[in-house]
From TrEMBL:
Protein name (record): Asp-tRNA(Asn)/Glu-tRNA(Gln) amidotransferase A subunit family amidase
Organism of derivation: Arthrobacter ginsengisoli
Residue ranges occupied by any Amidase domain in the UniProt entry: 2-71, 134-261
Source organism, top-level taxon: Bacteria
Transmembrane spans: none
Entry-linked SUPFAM superfamilies: Amidase signature (AS) enzymes (SSF75304)
Family per similarity comment: Belongs to the amidase family.
Amino acid sequence: MAAGMVPLALGTQTAGSLTRPASYCGVAGFVAAKDQFSTAGVTGLSHSFDSLGLITRTVRDLRYAWESLSRFETVEHDGPLDSVELLLWDGSGLGEVSTEMSAALIAAESTLSRQLGFHFSEWSDHGMVRDLAEQHATVMASEASAARAEELAHHHELSVPFAELLTSGRSLPHHEYTAALELIAVSRQRVLALLERFDAVLGPAALGAAPAGLEATGSPILSRPWQALGLPVLTIPGPSSSDGLPLGLQLIGAPGREPRLFDIGQRIEESLRPKGVKKGATLPLYH
């Protein structure tokens, strides 16, 4: 996608398998709300979290693909967006967010406030987000060990991280698994109530730019809380690091309000696009 070879890619996300690479590659990504699309035929990992997603060059193309797949009637929204209220989340407590990623988020807030008149409030409940990340890890490990029991029997043939995930899940007490699900359900209601007052949550899509080398793919930690809640998430291409590597932002919304999420995401992308880069990318889907 980032190389301009295809206009659309399909993917899945259980923790951060779509949001993170989209951020690293400087492309637009979308994780659909849990259960919006069937996962029949997908080799899943955690039935509570497995979701389908899309990757394109631009948010505009994402919207076009999503509307086609969901059979949503396409409506152009090129007029101004009035009274956009966003919660600004900086990823506190979930890992070491790079200085450049933090600066990109602050710069985005300034640009969107100044150019578009967006209103921002600070996300305050960092404890709940940290708890959600832990609960997500518990549920994912438990369900993965059950779903991939056959592979676990040959754990010596698996990658070390995957073997560790399945092994840790097998050792988790069932009551910890059910307790995590219950706590996630409570948090979901709290966040959905917040999203009745705010249009979306804007935050970093990853801890920073893509890690060097081929030994690791980076941490999914900043996606875990929102994936646990089953919310639709946009990854929006942002600026570049000092090394020229992409930095992405994520926009989290409420299920059923995806058109509004795409409206806002398109405006953010257009406002953050570097000068000299034309609107409409290579191999556009939307005509």
